[in-house]
Amino acid sequence: MEDTLIIGTVALDTIETPFGRVERALGGSATYASFAASFFSKPALVSVIGHDFPKEYIKLLKGRGISLEGVKIEDKTFHWEGFYEYDMNEAKTRKTELNSLENFKVKVPERHKSIKYIFLANIDPEQQHETLRQMRKPELVVLDTMNFWISSKKDQLIEVIKKADILLLNDGEARQLFGTSSLVKAANGALKLGPNAVIIKKGEHGALMFTKNKHFSAPGYPLENIKDPTGCGDSFGGAFIGYLAKTKDLSEQNFRKAVVYGSVVASHNAEEFGPDRLKKLSMSDIEKRYKEFQDIREF
Amino acid sequence: MEDTLIIGTVALDTIETPFGRVERALGGSATYASFAASFFSKPALVSVIGHDFPKEYIKLLKGRGISLEGVKIEDKTFHWEGFYEYDMNEAKTRKTELNSLENFKVKVPERHKSIKYIFLANIDPEQQHETLRQMRKPELVVLDTMNFWISSKKDQLIEVIKKADILLLNDGEARQLFGTSSLVKAANGALKLGPNAVIIKKGEHGALMFTKNKHFSAPGYPLENIKDPTGCGDSFGGAFIGYLAKTKDLSEQNFRKAVVYGSVVASHNAEEFGPDRLKKLSMSDIEKRYKEFQDIREF
Questions:
Q1: CA separation for the pair B90, A104 (Å, rounded)
Q2: What mean pLDDT, rounded, does chain A reach?
Q3: Furthest-apart CA pair in chain B: how many Å?
Q4: How many angstroms separate the CA of residue B26 from the nearest CA in chain A?
Q5: Which of A97, B27, B86, B246 is most deeply packed, by most CB within 10 A?
Q6: What confidence tier does B86 reach under pLDDT thresholds 50, 70, 90?
Q7: Average pLDDT of B96-120?
């Protein structure tokens, strides 16, 4: 039975980095998140794709045990084209063709409405909010977003943050949303809105988690070759909630472990283009790098 | 007896940040480094000041048990004027008056030439090199530098790196010096030149240490208020070598502890202008925050 509901985008991504280029690769926030979660739990994906969506991608996702019952098929698939420059920290958008995403209205399948672990991956905050309205009794709501929604739908985003248990942001977004250069102040601002925990993703610099009276600092994994950071934040979120859905332990201590599992899967994801690395990733690769994360922070 | 030799600059700093301004505050790489080292060991400072150097600053340094025997007095004191913008990550220089630093030739006092622990804090690499020539039998040479020397005296800098045991750089400098966006590649490039360890300082993101087959990631301390980052890198280096001079243990494991002590002192230093925080810092403040560094990285 599916135990993790993930709503977000499914996309075809055309990506260029200093190390190569891929066209119409499998992408989207919910795709990466579901893929990453599937190492730990059974995800139900809620999104929309177009009639042009390649059958092999469907097969790939189903092969990971991901339910696609909540994925509508309409029009053409959302297409994102972007590139990264030398420092690889920020994706620059060349083209966004929303297509079927433009009029997407979330509809959670009846039998998935009782799922307890919910990841609102990056998508329009109104659809994130609508998802929560359709769910019966969530135990854990994890929310992610992006700078685009902070600029264009801040009020709606704030409303969803108020209903989330855990907020994920990257460092730039945290500073933007709370209007401060201090990540500690930004995190305190977020905690005041309602969430029990705020996780600030800092790419190669790791991640910070702030709860009421504690903070946790997860190291970044020192990668020699970063090929394509697309989907790292989404993979982080997916592995994070997948691990929590698997262990059913919502203590701050277990959140820390989940942050490290999120970091492990995200660091792998950056090593190849699109989701290529995740396709070949095994649970033993994950456990091996988890152990390395323990070693590199020991003193 | 002095057990840590520190060569670098002593300056008067005029600093502006979004949180205030100070004029002709006590500054310079060797000043911050000696101050930080003095919590752990007995530093001998080698540098030059001018006749305008305030008596109270002399008193302050001597009060910390720092030997000023190797400090020449000539002309006017080196004066740096700079500012930080909102993100506080990079100092911008408004004015540099080298004054007595312009023709400075290092001269290590006879009785300090046998000191075993040497910190070549940020100064002209030719003077760093000359210092090593004057020393009898160093056991540990720690080297710091800055982007200015990487641009203007790269060859001379490389020569000193070849003689150093531990190289300190910030992340931007590491990328600049080794022409790569990957910190792992930059670190490997540095290790090939000779040092046994390379420490990459990342400001609020912590520090990375690379040795032949291992890496260590020290967390950044999440400061709510950063008032002035001037001297943080120098304080890091000073506390780092001071701790090693005190413990006389040059294992990779003890380097890790030294990195954390460096981070602890540097994080305190950013909390007030110039060296104001260091002036009031106690060993129990340091131990308390060291304990926090352990807690924030536990999972």
A1: 44
A2: 96
A3: 55
A4: 26
A5: B27
A6: confident
A7: 97
